[in-house]
Each structure stands twice: as structure tokens, then as C-alpha cells.
TrEMBL record:
<dbReference type="InterPro" id="IPR036390">
    <property type="entry name" value="WH_DNA-bd_sf"/>
</dbReference>
<dbReference type="GO" id="GO:0005829">
    <property type="term" value="C:cytosol"/>
</dbReference>
<dbReference type="InterPro" id="IPR000944">
    <property type="entry name" value="Tscrpt_reg_Rrf2"/>
</dbReference>
<dbReference type="Pfam" id="PF02082">
    <property type="entry name" value="Rrf2"/>
</dbReference>
<dbReference type="InterPro" id="IPR036388">
    <property type="entry name" value="WH-like_DNA-bd_sf"/>
</dbReference>
<dbReference type="GO" id="GO:0003700">
    <property type="term" value="F:DNA-binding transcription factor activity"/>
</dbReference>
<protein>
    <submittedName>
        <fullName>Rrf2 family transcriptional regulator</fullName>
    </submittedName>
</protein>
């Protein structure tokens, strides 16, 4: 399934396919992590949406939308103007699970199940429940891992990669 965006073309409204929905879910999370890593690494106090968007390679509007979600979740503080954003608590106290839940509400499942199976079919009757149990187990394992990983730990990886790049 594709997300669609209306586009005006020669006065006519047309539909243009863009990214798939799963890509958008994964992208919002990675952009949120990128934002937090930039803010955590901000030594020059320039965590504005324009600066963050430049690093991420996206539009400042996208950054502001995701930063708003992070702010509402209490992960960052945002002020208009040159101050930009700052972490609301130490990076070592922000887990990937915190970020995931800020971007994806509890009610939103990582892996969805198709809903309109044929109840007259022996397989169709049981597939949703069978898959849901397995998907719930997979999501629980992922969230457990996300709960053990912090922004500070990811930031350590930034320093290691930067040192290797300079050495090469």
C-alpha cells in the first residue's frame, strides 16, 4: 500500500504515489533518533530546525513536526529563534523505547494484521490470531531491546565512527 499526496498539476488535482507506509514509520523513528543525537552532540548551541534539517537531509517542517512529538513526550525542550532545542533530561536517561513511544502511540502496532479474512476458510479463521501472537512476541522483544539502549549509548557510536573516518 502506498501513501498518496495530492499534487496540483495544470489546475487539475492528481494523485502521486510516494513512500510506502512501513517506510514512513521506520523513517519517522530514525529521523527522531537523528534529531536527538544532533541535540545531544550540540556543542555550538545551534540546534535549530534548519540546522537539524540540513544534517538529516530533509525539510525543516519535517523536523519541526517530529520535534513537536519529542517535546510533547518530554524528551526535548524547544524554544523559538536561535536557541533551538535541548534535551529535557540527560541522554543516558532517554531510551530508544521512549523515542519510539513518542513517535508511535501505544495503540499503533509495529506489525499490523490484515482484518478481513474469510471466516469460512479453515486457515482464514485462525491466521489473524496466530500471527498476532507471534507479532506481539516480536514487538515485545524489540521493545525490551529498545528499553536497554539509550541516546548516550548511540552517541558513543558517533564518536567511534568519527574517529575511524578521521584516521582513514
Amino acid at each position: 500500500m502506498h501513501a498518496v499526496a495530492p499534487v496540483l498539476s495544470s489546475g487539475n488535482l492528481s494523485i502521486v504515489a510516494s513512500r510506502t507506509f512501513p517506510d514512513m514509520i521506520a523513517t519517522r523513528f530514525s529521523v527522531a533518533l537523528h534529531i536527538l543525537l544532533l541535540i545531544a552532540d550540540d556543542s555550538d548551541g545551534d540546534s535549530t530546525s534548519a540546522r537539524l534539517a540540513w544534517s538529516i537531509g530533509t525539510n525543516p517542517v519535517v523536523v519541526r513536526r517530529i520535534a513537536g512529538q519529542l517535546s510533547r513526550a518530554g524528551l526535548i525542550s524547544v524554544q523559538r529563534g536561535p536557541g533551538g532545542a535541548s534535551l529535557s533530561r540527560p541522554a543516558a536517561q532517554i531510551t530508544l523505547r521512549d523515542v519510539w513511544r513518542a513517535i508511535h502511540p501505544e495503540k499503533e502496532k509495529l506489525l499490523g494484521i490484515h482484518k478481513k479474512t474469510n471466516l469460512e476458510c479453515a486457515v482464514g479463521r485462525v491466521v489473524p490470531e496466530l500471527l498476532q501472537r507471534r507479532f506481539d512476541q516480536a514487538e515485545a522483544a524489540l521493545m525490551a531491546d529498545f528499553s536497554r539502549t539509550t541516546i548516550a549509548q548511540l552517541a558513543e557510536g558517533l564518536g567511534e565512527r568519527e574517529q575511524r573516518a578521521v584516521a582513514e
